[in-house]
Specification:
With about 450 residues, the chain is α/β, with parallel strands linked by helices. It has helices at about 1-15, 20-35, 40-50, 55-65, 95-105, 105-120, 130-145, 145-155, 160-205, 220-240, 255-260, 295-305, 325-330, 335-345, 350-365, 390-395, 420, 435-450, and strands at about 245-250, 270-275, 280-285, 310-320, 320-325, 370-375, 400-405, 430. It is elongated and about 100 Å long.
């Protein structure tokens, strides 16, 4: 049963339930203790070992039921239970184990034969829904379907009502076997390939343009919001571990000697130097005009999901005038907070110069040499004064100024765009109109807070 358990762990991982090698060892020990005799006991024991959250418990229940589902084979009943079911078939049928199981209606034997054939056909390696038909046929071939089809064809050539009846019975059993094989492959697809299909869909959404014409479909929007939060959690997990890391090989002599004084100078407690990573302090300034609102929503969702690794997060939004949106984001989800922001300052003529004035007059004191400023906007100011001097002031007072522009660089000097003039005051200026680009840029920001 070790192979079955390993496949079960793989099904759990495909559903985003983490199973570490240590947890897999614990699960094997659990199974060795409780055994397989009682289904509910086995389920509860494995669930207690492998599921860590309420959401994972619900997923675990569904996967367990699907993985260990062994539906009884549907086989046609014999007209005469006392008669030999193989008697009227051609002589070569006696050499076919599958024909004997089908004619005898041995559901248990057929189930075992299908399990063994599925292992040989590697059905559990299914990754795409398009593989289901091919793997179903391969599974049936491994069971010996070609022999059954030949036996049916030869039986129909024989004379006599008995041969005709036996051929019809075997044909009915063959069709039932085909249906069972299709259902088996579908269950394997649900266990192992549903996650890969979701991953493919998420990969496509990560490359979807946020400023696409026609906006974002509501279904895609919900999936993208969930994807952003998972991206942020992944980065938070990665960079929270960097904050205190042992500097292996570099002995802290002073602290080691101090600790050894209690042991007569014997260094029982060895202390190594550590390097510390400061938490980033981020100020996000977002254009929420129609062309940039979607990108702003995802940026704020991303940043506010990084609370574990961000020391301070301040958010501002502007269209014509600039306002602080911290209170709105604290009281509402980001998607509804953006709507509240639009009610207050939306549908105004974009004026970058006036917005920079508002920020410098009211919030400039929030910047210091530890603050990274992330500016999100297309830099299209409707030919108003861009106030380059104010952006230069922000750049001098901050640790870094990063500008994310949803438009490609070829547009940065066209029309009313002043991005090419703002660019020289930015430490980083990049095109950012997909979730994948957003994740890479935010990771670069976190990476710049190097250990010291």
């Amino acid at each position: 049963m070790q192979t079955a358990l390993e496949d079960f762990f793989r099904a759990l991982r495909a559903a985003d339930i983490r199973v570490s090698p240590a947890e897999a060892i614990d699960a094997h020990r659990t199974v060795a203790t409780v055994g397989f005799a009682e289904r509910e006991l086995l389920k509860d024991a494995l669930c207690a070992t492998l599921a860590k959250t309420a959401g994972e418990v619900s997923l675990f229940d569904d996967i367990f039921e699907t993985f260990f589902d062994r539906q009884a084979f549907v086989v046609p009943p014999q007209d005469d239970p006392e008669a030999d079911p193989m008697a009227s078939l051609p002589p070569e049928a006696a050499e076919s184990e599958l024909a004997r199981l089908l004619m005898a209606g041995d559901a248990s034997g057929l189930a075992q034969a299908m399990e063994a054939a599925a292992e040989r056909a590697q059905v559990s390696q299914i990754r795409l829904s398009t593989q289901r038909s091919r793997l179903t046929r391969k599974l049936l071939e491994e069971m010996g379907l070609a022999e059954i089809e030949q036996i049916i064809a030869n039986a129909r050539r024989l004379e006599g009502e008995g041969a005709s009846t036996a051929a019809a019975r075997l044909e009915t059993a063959r069709k039932a076997l085909t249906d069972e094989a299709g259902a088996y492959v579908n269950r394997q697809h649900e266990l192992y390939a549903a996650g890969s299909g979701r991953a493919l869909r998420e990969d496509l959404l990560a490359r979807k343009a946020l400023n696409a014409d026609g906006g974002i479909d509501p279904v895609d929007l919900a999936m993208m919001q969930a994807l952003v939060k998972r991206m942020a959690k992944r980065l938070a997990d990665r960079y929270s571990r960097r904050r205190n890391v042992a500097w292996t090989g570099h002995l802290d002599v002073r602290r080691t000697l101090r600790k050894s004084m209690g042991y007569g100078g014997m260094p029982f407690d060895i202390v190594f130097k550590t390097k510390r990573v400061d938490k980033p302090s981020i100020v996000a300034i977002c254009d929420v005009s129609k062309s940039v609102a979607a990108a702003a929503q995802f940026l704020l969702t991303f940043l506010y999901s990084l609370n574990e690794v961000v020391d301070r997060m301040e958010a501002f939004a502007f269209s014509g005038r600039m306002i602080s949106v911290n209170a709105l984001l604290d009281d509402h989800p980001v998607e509804t907070a953006i709507l509240e922001v639009l009610k207050q300052i939306g549908f105004q003529q974009t004026d970058y110069g006036r917005s920079l004035e508002d920020f410098c007059e009211q919030h400039l004191d929030q910047l210091d040499r530890h603050t990274t400023v992330i500016f999100l906007g297309d830099a299209r100011s409707n030919y108003a004064d861009p106030r380059l001097d104010l952006l230069a002031t922000i750049q001098k007072r901050s640790r870094a100024l990063i500008w994310l522009n949803p438009e490609p660089e070829s547009y940065w000097s066209q029309g009313d765009s002043v991005m090419n003039r703002y660019e020289r005051f930015c430490h980083v200026a990049k095109t950012c109109n997909t979730l994948g680009q957003l994740e890479r840029i935010i990771e670069d920001v976190l990476r710049t807070y190097i250990p010291h």
